[in-house]
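User: Need the bound-state model for cobalt (II) ion:
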Amino acid sequence: MDQDVSSRPGARAIPIHGPEAYEGMRAAGRLAAECLDMLAGEVKPGADTARLDRLAYEFVRDHGAVSGTIGYRGYRHALCISPNHVICHGIPGGKPVNAKPMREGDIANIDITLVLDGWHGDTSRMYYAGEPKVLAQRLTDVTFECLWAGIEQVKPGNTLYDIGKAIQDRAAEDGFTTVHDFCGHGLGRVFHQAPNVVHYGEYRDATGHVHRAPDTVLEPGMFFTIEPMICTGRPDARILRDGWTAVTRDRSLTAQFEHALAVTEDGYEIFTRSPKGLDRPPYTAG
Ligand code: MF3
Ligand code: CO
Ligand code: CO
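Assistant: Bound-state model below.
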């Protein structure tokens, strides 16, 4: 996810992509989804997050791709692993949140970005280590539904506002909140580009200022991610001293799912669907 930079000078127009770009994004998105499929069997109590990162690194390398995050603004890992109260950008093996092995009942988001033939595949899912608590499972289920509420708004003529509003409303139905400080983003040959895809319709910040999602109209050929981060408590974020790890200020639980997709003539095409149908946990029977 990206920070909202849409009002900065130099923020560019939204690219409209042609057929060969769709081909490139299908291959990159599929490979990223396959990497998350591979990790499904590896997340369990006792799992070492640095090892998960190594597995992802090797998977990416062995399939002719490169990491999109290693070297990105100084980041040094193939994955972000964000457990429990970590909103996003958790560092594999990093102190304090990922220094110890995963514990029974932990939930975590794992986010991969890779580059295949110049095209970016960016996707994330929630994982359970063992059996989640009732609230953690509920949050995970609602967050998945938030992603889909957003996706269902993707069609020509609808707007970015429609996507954000649908996500916020679905979260609020269960009394959950949506993170304002990080958003989805355009992607293609460039990792983070226009448009910013915020996960709210409208909200009022602490100073009383009202933020509203843009009424930007969706057009066929636009590529972007939708990646809502949903919280059981307040959605305010704080970055730890490592400069990356974003946590909820109130340490409430938070969850996220991410797909990369295109606007098509009659709706959307998702690039990052799980080939194995492992789009949401639990990933193992029993
Ligand atoms: N994959 C994240 C996203 O969805 C971005 C991670 S950037 C990193 O946009 F440097 F933290 F890896
Ligand atoms: Co993203
Ligand atoms: Co991502």
